[in-house]
Structure formats: C-alpha cells, structure tokens
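Consider the following assembly input.
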Amino acid sequence: MTEPFRVAIAGLGTVGAGVVEILQSNAAQVAMRAGRPVEIVAVNARDKAKERGVDVSAYEWVDDAAGLAGVEADAVIELIGGSDGPAYDLVKAALAGGKHVVSANKALLAHHGTELATLAEGHGVSLNYEAAVAGGIPIIKAAREGLAGNKMSAVYGILNGTSNFILTKMRESGRDFDDVLKEAQDLGYAEADPTFDVDGVDAGHKICLLASIAFGVQPEFNKVRMRGIREVTSADINFAAEFGYRIKLLGIAKDRDGLINITVEPCLVPEATPLGTVENAYNAVVVKGDFVDTPLLTGLGAGRGPTASAVVADIIDLARGLHVPTFGIPAKALKKPDFIDPATIKQHYYLRLTVTDQPGVIADVSAILRDHDASIESMVQHGRDPGQPVSVVLVTHDVKRGDIEAACEEISKLKSCLEKPYLMRIEHQL
Amino acid sequence: MTEPFRVAIAGLGTVGAGVVEILQSNAAQVAMRAGRPVEIVAVNARDKAKERGVDVSAYEWVDDAAGLAGVEADAVIELIGGSDGPAYDLVKAALAGGKHVVSANKALLAHHGTELATLAEGHGVSLNYEAAVAGGIPIIKAAREGLAGNKMSAVYGILNGTSNFILTKMRESGRDFDDVLKEAQDLGYAEADPTFDVDGVDAGHKICLLASIAFGVQPEFNKVRMRGIREVTSADINFAAEFGYRIKLLGIAKDRDGLINITVEPCLVPEATPLGTVENAYNAVVVKGDFVDTPLLTGLGAGRGPTASAVVADIIDLARGLHVPTFGIPAKALKKPDFIDPATIKQHYYLRLTVTDQPGVIADVSAILRDHDASIESMVQHGRDPGQPVSVVLVTHDVKRGDIEAACEEISKLKSCLEKPYLMRIEHQL
C-alpha cells in the first residue's frame, strides 16, 4: 500500500486552503500515519485568480465542480457547502463513480444523508464528514467507533461557535444581543446574514447528524425543532448567573425508549461544570452511553485549522483503508425515527416575566402555574418600582413542556403581564 | 464478512465481566456496528467458581492464561494486568500466533510497547489498548486517528481518577490527604496499596503511551518523572483557590523542537476552565496540535462500564477490519526519544514555605529568589503569629526549574525555614 492516495478538492475557501496547507506542510507526517503519501491531483474553486495563501499551481485546475468527479482520484473532498446545488451534484456523482467522499457539509448530510449513505454503500465507498460537526473535536469518530459498544440514549452540546461567542461576550460585557452581534460581524466571527448561526439552523444540522449515529436512525432535518438566541437578554444572563447557571445554545437529541426528540434551543446549564465553562468560540459535545457514562469532548468548532484538521483525518482514514458506514451501521438498517410529543417531556424551566410591579401579580402567576402542575423552585425580582415594569424570574421543578407552555400562554393574558413570557430549559446532566 | 468475530478473554475481574456483559446485553447492536456478530469462544480467570454477575458457562474455560493463545479465535482480550508475567507472556504468544490483541494493560504497553508493536506488525495483526488510558474517553483513537493530520506538541491531563477523587474531597471537606485516602479506601475507590494511584505511577504509564502516539516515539517508561499527591495539603488547596487555581495531578508530555519531557506531578490549573472543573473520579486529556488547537476530552477514567466500553470498541474496530499501527505509525519508524534537561524548562511556580513569623524572613527569601532569577508575581500569608510557624505562599513568574529548585534548596537552609519548601507547577494552557 505505498501507492499515493489521490484526492481532488472542490472548494478552496478558508477550509479548502487549510486542507491544502496541512497536506503540504505536514506531508511527511501524514504519509507516515496514512501508510502512504497523500497526493492532491486536482482542485476546483469559483475564482482561479484569487489569492489563497497556498500554492495550488501544481494541481490540475478544474473549472466546473462536477468535473472533479471525473478526475483520476481515490477520493473527492467536497468543501463547497450548501444542502443542494453543486455540492450535492458532485457528491452524488463521485460516489456513483466509485470514489470515496470527504465532506465538511453538515447541511448536505442532514438533508440527504440517507440517500448518500445508501449510494456510498451501493458503490462500496465511504462518505466521511468529521469536519461537518465541531471541526476541532473528533466527535463523529468517537460516536461511530469509540463508543460503538454502547446503547446511546442522548447526545447534546454546544455546536455553534458564533452563538457561544455572542453569549459569552454578552455575559462578560453586560451588553445586549444586537450590540454584540454587530461587533461579532465587524470582527468576522459572524456572517452578514447570521441566521444559520444565531437561529439554531447550523446547530440543528449538526445535532441531526449526531442523533443519526447515536440512535441508528435516518437523519430527518425537518423534524429538528430549532430556536436561537435572539431573544436572550443580558438580564437573562444575569438572572441565570444568580441561580448558578450559564446560558448556552444547546443541540439536544434524546432517545427515550425509541421515541426521539431533537431540538436546538438556549438552555441553562450549571456554570461550575465542564460544559458550563465552555466559552467563546469553543464547542462541546456530550454523549450518554449505557456503559461509558457521559464523556464530553471540547474544542474549537470552526475555523480554518480545526476544520481542515478534521478533513485531513478523514482522508488519512481512507488512505489507511479504514472504512465505517456513514452513520455507523448499514444504511438499510437505519430506522425511520419515531418522534416523541415534545409537550409530554418533563424538565426544569426558567421563566422570565415582564410585569407591572403591583400587589397580586405574583399571586396570579403562581395560581396559573399551580393550575398547570408547575411548581416553583425559586423566584427572584430585582429592585422595586411600584406601578412600573419589572422583570421577575421563576425556576420551576419538573413540569411537562405542554403544561408550562399553556401556563405561559395564560400568564401572557394577564393585564399585568407586559411582554410574552420567555421560557428556557434547564439542563442538569453535566 | 458475516462470519462471527471470535474473541478469547483472559481475566474476568471487574473489566472482564463488564466486557462479557456488554457483548451479551448489546449483542445485536454490536453485531450491527461490527458488520458481523462478535462471539466469545473462551475465557480464563484464576478462580472458575467465583461469582461474577455474568454467565460464562457457555464459553470454553481455559485454566491457564497462556492456553488462550492456542484457542481458535481471531483476537485475544488481555485483562489480566501487570507489566510482566502471565499478561506479557499471553500477549506475546497471541501476537506471535497471528491473533489480534486487545489489552487494557497500561503497564505492559508502557514497559514493552515497542517490542509488542514490532511483534504485532511482524505478524500482520493489531494491538489495541483504548481501555489502557482513561477508559471512558476515546483518547487513543482521537490521538492515533482523529488528530492524525496534526503535528502534536503536547498532550496532558488528569489521568488518575483516584487521585482526582482525593483532591476533590480534600478541597470540598478541608480534610487532609491521609484522612481522605482512608475514606477512599473504605469506599473501594482506592486500593489497599495506593502507591500506583497516588504516587503517579498509573498516570505515568498512561502519559507515556500518549506521548508515544503524539510524538511518534518509543515508549520509555523509565524516563517518566513522577511525583504524586501525598505532600499536597489542604492548606495548599486553599491557597491555590485564593489565586484562582485548583490542584490537579497532571500527566504532561511536551515536545519542544524534538526534545521531549514527560512528567506526572501535582499542578495548579485555573479553576474556571474546562480542565479545572474536572472533579471526582473524572479524567480529562488535552491534545495540542498545530492545526486543531487544543481539544479536551473528559470522562470517567476507570470503572467497569467505561473501561469495558473501551475494550468493546477495540473489538468492534477489529471485527470491522479497521487496523491502525500500535502507536499510529509503523513500529520501526518510532524514534528513540531525546529528552530535554528539565532544569532548563521555564514555568510559573507555586511555592509554599513554612517559616517562623519574624521580621526579615520575607526579605531573606526574596533575596534568594532574586539571586536565582525568580521574580515574584504574588505572595500571601494567612494570619500573623509572631515567633510561631506560619505558611507563606509565593507565585512566581516564569523561572527555570533548575533555578527555582536551587532557590528552594537555599531557602531550606535558612534558620527561619522550618520545613522543606513545597513546589508545584502552574499550568495555564487551559
């Protein structure tokens, strides 16, 4: 096995250029670990003339992404992005042509994972995507291989670095979401259109893939319920701190006796825990297995180096001859997931109300909560300002989501309730 | 590949029984992931009659561990333990006989790793040992495969659960080492002879193996410098907290331009970080790579479930046909490590002195430190008790270990210095 392993790279943006850089600068080490040299044979990008900080002149330039599928190569590296269009077409063509594929494309896998896994298996090739989820953390490998002896009942974590960066800055500076988002955009940490990051879509793609591996189910992105961090206020962050929590945008997938729930939402996690201390652009993933307990993996979730590192690890696996089914088991064995009715799930909740500071308000709210089986663990109001709007925060004991949402609905109709109540899950596992 | 993958298990203690339990209770899942059933064909232990909580009556019983090498099996699972004796003999015989080996034996690998890796490669078989280092954390796989694109310059972490449990209890209760150790022994968390755990030997075995994978060098356990936690006092823990640190027994391996240093010693780590918040019996490992930055993996380091989970993951890899060289590169490519002179390494230090509370002591100490190029970042003394012994703690800026040790030597000769000064590294990386 000393023939070079030949790769063709589609997409030379931040990650693509990083992959070229690793394969060039760590070539000897990569060859030693792969058991043979890894050779770039062709590249493709939109703009040939663009300065990328790496020299690609030695490789065949292919103008059309789809054309890479026809190049003489062992694997195609898809770093174009997008759930459809050129990325989808190229990956399908490459797999159908008997080429392995390495992709960093979470959207593609979350939308078309079952089809692509089936295609790969039908042609005896592998589809690797370590870089698609938390680049700096080898979580796909951990879940597909390292924890393969376990029945996994949950996987969850901080899966979007931009959101975590914003929440961290909000906490540190006391500033509000819009203000910090703008700074993050100016610094290049957030994109001009931040929707995918701050509204939970990016984390949704990732948790969807992790759930498929953990539970052996087909990825169904349209069933992932997502809520982002736009409504989190700096007041929430302060209240949470008072109760000993930090607010994190968590992707959470749980398998309760075959009934699955996959969500992305801002949650309160205890601050003095490994998960609670994951700040800035760092990601973290926890897997719960029946024997291994709850390992947690932390690292940079995005960026040139970590993402390219993940792509190269996938390439080295292929060059070494290591092949694992796309979602850890044969594609035809992936079950169609049954989803739980989220209204039935019990959880502790954080509830922020904006009410008029006047006698009787708390009595009204408490009565509504009682009528919906929600019992109050603690309550805090900052300051007093009779007749004026104040924030009141409640933390509940375990209550069904359906009940607490119905209670919120009712509370919002109180004359003294000035804004829609804001609800967040509390996650205690770590 | 639907023929069963046949394993023979040597050692049915806590871990061995756990492996049997997983292979029995998760059999369908394991078969799905492995691509074929995993079948136990033979077992061995010292006492056939012992109650183990699992039924092994269906498997061939082999009285003599060495006899397992002769059984018709694809892999031998060595869970006997010990760097020499039956474990060593069995592993050698199994590899020489063309059988794969899965082992949880850190001592064996740390002492004989190069020989066994060479033997395995010579016979075209694999030697897997995920369970040998931090059972609940797939760190061997992460280092050998997941981060394979990186030049790794450091790997370090909390590698001994017993020590971390003791340090955590000391911090929480304010009690001293001996007292907490006794409780840990009564609870079964520490062994009657706790030497391997609390004196750093166990962590030494583990960091030795991680260094070999990270840096591509032969394991040389006799070059690992180890110091345990027996001398850590509850006063140290309090002082450390005052400076914002927690005390952790860290295994640390660093590669400075080809010069390697491997140590186990109690260190101060910042408390509000993912590593600082790893408490009780949890382990944590950080890898520093040139592209991936510093991923951190946390999980239970020992115990039946996590360790057995790691063993089964290794078995599934073999059943799937995934084979990786023992230390990530061909055995013959492993370099003989060059070690750095530890005296030349610069670091921040924590220094606890027990001195007579009298004028001039601090002036004397400061002068000695100044004469050894050690500059003081902060200093604290609790209470005043003229003429009586008091603890004074100093935190230094970067200073060479040789210099600070020479300074300690000189300080210990002061008439006012009542005990040997106690020195700990401060690790800021995470």
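The first helix of chain A runs from residue 14 to 25. Ask yourself how this observation constrains the way the partners meet.
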